[in-house]
Amino acid sequence: MLTDSDLQAIWLTVRLAGLVTLILLVVGTPIAWWLARTPSRWKGPIGAVVALPLVLPPSVLGFYLLLAMGPSGPVGQLTQALNLGLLPFTFGGLVIASVFYSLPFMVQPLQTAFEAVGDRPLEVAATLRASPLDAFFTVAVPLAAPGFLTAAILTFAHTVGEFGVVLMMGGNLPGITRVASVQIYDHVEALEYMQAHRLSAVMLVFSFVVLLALYAWRPQARKGG
Amino acid sequence: MPGALKLGKAAEVGGIEARFQLDWPGFSLDVDLNLPARGVTALFGHSGSGKTTLLRCIAGLERAPQGRLVVDGEAWQDTGRWVPTHQRPIGYVFQEASLFAHLTVMGNLRYGMKRTQGAPQAGLDQSIALLGIGHLLDRKPGTLSGGERQRAGMARALAVNPRLLLMDEPLAALDLQRKQEILPYLERLRDELDIPMLYVSHSPDEVARLADTLVVMDGGRVVASGPLASTLARIDLPIRLGEDAGTVLDGTVGAVDSEWHLARVDFSGGSLWVRDQGLPVGRRVRVRILARDVSLAEDPGTSSIQNVLRGCVDAMTDDGHPGLALVRVRVGEAMLLARLTKRSAASLGVAPGRTLWVQMKSVALME
Predict the structure, then answer these.
(1) Scanning every residue of chain B, which has its alpha carbon at the shortest distance from the alpha carbon of A223?
(2) How buried is residue B146: exposed, middle or buried, by Cβ count under 10 Å (0-12/13-18/19+)?
(3) In which element (H, E) is residue A215 found?
């Protein structure tokens, strides 16, 4: 069976992924909306920055975040000045790092969904007296609903699977930063292969179920549209 | 009056003053127009002539850097003034119906209504009745035919109780059969709404059937504008209608000959016999006569052609093909166009001032 520390790691992972998904829904939606609709020449550079975590080794991202949030980094100095202490090796630090790490998994599906909605429904909404914000919530969001579902599932799943950034930023503190992927690493280091097997099986089943949900939902969403 | 649509207050609506200058790569719009407060104004031209861009400027969907737009005494655009689309009291019908896919037909109709102060429920009910979509209200747009979607789109535009109805080629995306299905509904809108309509079209047939005023556009400029009949009769326009060149006459049904199933339409220059379509005597109707169906003769003689009137040649011009001429003939107050070969024009001695018999092989009743 799973040990208490395994369950603790799983619960921590779920909390982390859930929180990061919620934060990214709020932060990622306006970025995706802007990228989908702007004629600005900054669209390319901003889009590239958002996509960086896709190709950057997680340790590189984690390293820079660690420097920024560390005692002499700009973010670290700010948090210290605000009496918040330092973020590395805390759950909060892990959440912030994960938000950066998972950003493209939220933004890119949403951007694609908003682009697919196009200008026309928003123009129609304007001729029917809807202000731009009204049209966003009552037309763009419902029409992009399948994109929101895809983005949320991908973000959650990707955060669950995070390892390198966690090690760089959060280390390995039980109940604080020791997520499931790190716990498996610990088991293997300690040659507890049976434990590693069990936890890995849980992760495997979880990942499969997530993808199954994603692929099963998609055609349905398309039919509805 | 049963079936009459009174959408909210039947306010007296003033005219439309529209002036726009806009420069895009490869296209510019430069118009200065005064449009009447009543009836259907057709914006007519080939694709790329700027008619849709003009309509979008009026709706506020496009913002011309230089522009002034006054509707019914209210400035919607002027130096230092810009009323965004959602604050303009318009109804807009797009080329594709563009219904919201996530809402039912009723949800689509209610969307604009909910956001319009003082849009009466009666207006919604009448829009539904006028477009005949009562049986479709619970359906999702994806399950409707193209014609049904477009009717729902028109009802949605009317349900916001607009003071100006803008239509961007509402029939262009439909096949011929669907067009025939929708046209009677458009004619009902024209006859029963008391708001001005701007109707963008590249179809001479739709224009002849629906419009009261015609604005002809070419290359982002207005090349002619005025009452339909006199504008269609202009033969100096750079825009050539070819096979579709022709004029319309407005008249009334004067008599019905039930033996031969014909109806007599009286107009200022005489009368014409058309196929009887069951219209009552006294009904106002419009007939369309294509230039290719009109010939000229020195004496009427005897022929199968029923409609022969006396007319006076008014003007003459080349018509596309080097062998063809377009001749304008005045019949009473009305103008008709005739397309002749230049050889027959020469042998008849067609010239301005010459009086001839005008024979019409076919006259289409447009109701």
Answers:
(1) B142
(2) middle
(3) helix A193-224
Cα–Cα distance for residue pair B74/B17, rounded to 1 Å = 10
What is the value of pTM for the model shown? 0.84
**Helix (H), strand (E) at residue B206:** helix B204-210
Q: Is the pLDDT of residue A219 over 70?
A: no
State how far the Cα of B102 lies from the Cα of B122, in Å rounded to an integer: 25
Q: Which residue has the higher pLDDT, A123 or B121?
A: A123
Q: Are residues B224 and B99 in the same domain?
A: yes
Residues of A in contact with B92 (CB under 8 A): 124, 127
**Interface list for A 78-107 with B (CB within 8 A):** none
Mean pLDDT of chain B: 88
Which range marks the domain in which residue A144 is found? Answer: 4-224
Residues in contact with B305: Cβ distance below 8 Å, sequence separation at least 6, in sequence order: B359, B360, B361
Q: How far apart are the first and last CA of chain B?
A: 20
- Give me the domain span that covers residue B142: 16-232
> How many domains is chain A partitioned into structurally?
1
Nearest CA in chain B to A144: B102
Where do we find the tokens 């005025």? B226
The rounded distance, in Å, linking the Cα atoms of A104 and A114 is 15
pLDDT for B242 beyond 70: no
Tell me what percent of the residues of chain A surpass a pLDDT of 90.
Answer: 76
Distance CA B79, CA A195 (A): 74
Write out the E strands in B45-175: 66-71, 74-78, 81-82, 90-93, 164-168
Query: Which range has the worst mean pLDDT, A126-135, B91-100, B299-308?
Result: B299-308
Dihedral of alpha carbons B331, B211, B35, B282, sign: positive
Q: How far is B103 from chain A (nearest CA, A)?
A: 9
Within a 10 A sphere around the Cβ of B165, how many other Cβ atoms?
22
Number of separate domains in chain B? 2
Give me the interface pTM, i.e. the ipTM: 0.83
Q: Does the residue B120 lie in any domain?
A: yes
Residues 110-149 of A with CB under 8 A from B: 120-121, 123-132, 134-135, 138-139, 142-143, 145
CA separation (Å) from A177 to A43, B76, B217, B365?
35, 59, 69, 82
CATH number at residue A126: 1.10.3720.10
- B151 alpha-carbon distance from chain centroid: 17
- Nearest CB partner across the interface for A129, out of B100, B101, B160: B160
Check B115 against A126: CB less than 8 A apart.
no
Last residue of a domain, one of B232, B262, B287: B232
Which residues in chain B are closer than 8 Å to A134, comparing Cβ atoms? Answer: 86, 115
Q: Are residues B73 and B102 in the same domain?
A: yes
Q: Which residue of B has its CA nearest to A128?
A: B112
Mean pLDDT over A166-180 rounds to 87
Test the B interface: residue of A117, A122, A127, A137 with most B CBs within 10 Å: A127
